[in-house]
Write a structure and sequence with these properties.
12% strand; single chain; 10 helices; alpha+beta; 247 residues; four-stranded antiparallel sheet; 4 strands
Amino acid sequence: MSRPSSVGGLLGAICLSLTLATRGQPQTATERSARAAADTFFALVTREKWDSASAMLDLAGFEPYLKGVVRNARSAIPQRPMTAEYLMSIDSTMPRAVAEWQIQRMKRSDAGDQFSFLSTQFAGVTSPSDLFALSAPAAAARWLEAQDERFQMREAWRRQGCPMSELPSFPAVKRVVRAVGIANDSTAYVVQTDDRFGESPPDNLSFGERVMEVRRVGGRWLIVPRADLLQPRNFGYGFDCARAKRP
């Protein structure tokens, strides 16, 4: 995923924006339009309008990531199915019954696990064929949904075996734009916070303000896709349901 090309430029633009704001200086037209784009994007995310929200992403920054995931998925597909005959051909002392038992054990071990990571990166995608069938815009919508905390909490609830009939209504977090820093005519940085846990715990550096990069392309502000676009990096959810189904 994309990162700001110049940390110094980013900090300078944000500091200038905050300085002008504290002095009561009015926002420029560029700042207002960048802020409006960020507000619209967050409003669409709140309403879970993934196709519309993903249409505001800069696909030029998303497509290399998507190609990498597709490439890795393709390389993980076995070139030929493993058979008892193949095992016996590489070990002439192996009885057929043992070879068939080994094949069944491999199938049980691999069932549903090899590509389970896809559903955590793209909502609703459970197999390579699902992924390969997606266009870049459709994949961006699935990716964006999978970054949302409500999707992740629902998935965590399901994986834990909690009764789906008791699935809570997870509320959307409220995101607030704190400042907009203009780097140049085509790049801006939006400082945003959310009320995920109320006031940010001072002893946890994972929370607090985050910076979102936006780029003006063809007269439109587009959001640069990043792993921390909707929530902090390396963040997950878990549940312990008393009535969860246990193996």
